[in-house]
Amino acid sequence: MGWFDILKLSGEDFGRGSVRPDNEEYYGDTQNPVADYFYSNAMLHSITRPHYEGQLSSEKGVGAVGNLKTIAKKIGGKGDTNTLYYVFTDPENDAHVITFRKLDIEKALTGSTPRVKLGNRQLTGKLLNHKQDVIVFDSIYPMSGFNRIKAIKAQYLPIWDGDYQRLGRAVSQHAEDKSIGRTDVVPNIKERKSRLTKKEVKELEDLMETQHRASKKRIFDDNFRTRQARIDELKHKRDGLDDN
């Protein structure tokens, strides 16, 4: 899977009508990992937390498949407000789920903190020009850490065909890892599960972030291709795919 597949789960894929505010000035999300931006699209009634965007390029987002715009449309009017739900990211791929809440437009967005730019208020859907309840995408989890989903008491919401029978099968197919899903133990996950050295882990993180920025600016030059080749090489080593 390539870097562009990961971008499909970012709020960047909301497309026309999306805005990309600054985390520090508008959201104030301090839960790590955190991006310095987030996305909002009033037509899709959807917002991504800076924490959600940060997770996509972290260990938890590796291998994730899906299209966030499609997910937002599939959620539609399903679900109650102020309830934490999780859904599969793809109609066929069972490897990841994402969590979200539906919030009233007057309610502070999940994880937001008072911002000077907002008159020391917390960000709401209304301040981002939403006219009805908003879907706030919160986190992404690999199914190998499904116990973490149970721990945060999120409710399963079927949105794809066959989802009612799918969950039990997916849980049994993916081995459990109690540490996955906890942002404070991500370094331990990398050391224990990865075949990369610490230097290579850092190199991969930096390359993916640089690639992300270049993609947003639509800079697909020789340097982009060289970085992608190195990213693929490091991922193959990490996952043990370079073994004879």
Structure, explained:
With 244 residues, the protein is an alpha/beta fold. It has 2 domains: 3-175, no CATH class; 194-239. 35% of the residues lie in helices and 13% in strands. It has helices at 3-7, 23-27, 50-56, 68-75, 146-151, 163-173, 186-193, 198-216, 222-238; strands spanning 18-19, 39-41, 46-48, 84-88, 96-103, 134-142, 155-156. Strands 1-2-3-6-5-4-7 form a 7-stranded mixed sheet. A hairpin with a 7-residue loop joins strand 4 (84-88) and strand 5 (96-103). Helix 8 (198-216) runs antiparallel to helix 9 (222-238). The longest helix has 19 residues, at 198-216.
Helicity range of the residues?
Answer: 25-40%
Number of domains: 2
What would you call the shape? globular
Tally of DSSP β-strands: 7
State which percent range the strand residues make up. 5-15%
Main-sheet strand order equals 1-2-3-6-5-4-7
The total count of helices amounts to 9
Structural class by sheet pairing and helices: alpha/beta
Unreliable runs, pLDDT <50, ≥5 residues?
1-7, 177-193
Keywords for this entry:
about 240 residues; globular; 2 domains; disordered N terminus
Summarize the structure.
The protein has helices spanning 3-7, 23-27, 50-56, 68-75, 146-151, 163-173, 186-193, 198-216, 222-238, and strands at residues 18-19, 39-41, 46-48, 84-88, 96-103, 134-142, 155-156.
Topology summary:
Layout: H1 3-7, E1 18-19, H2 23-27, E2 39-41, E3 46-48, H3 50-56, H4 68-75, E4 84-88, E5 96-103, E6 134-142, H5 146-151, E7 155-156, H6 163-173, H7 186-193, H8 198-216, H9 222-238
Parallel strand pairs: 3-6, 4-7
Antiparallel strand pairs: 1-2, 2-3, 4-5, 5-6
Helix pairs in contact: 8-9
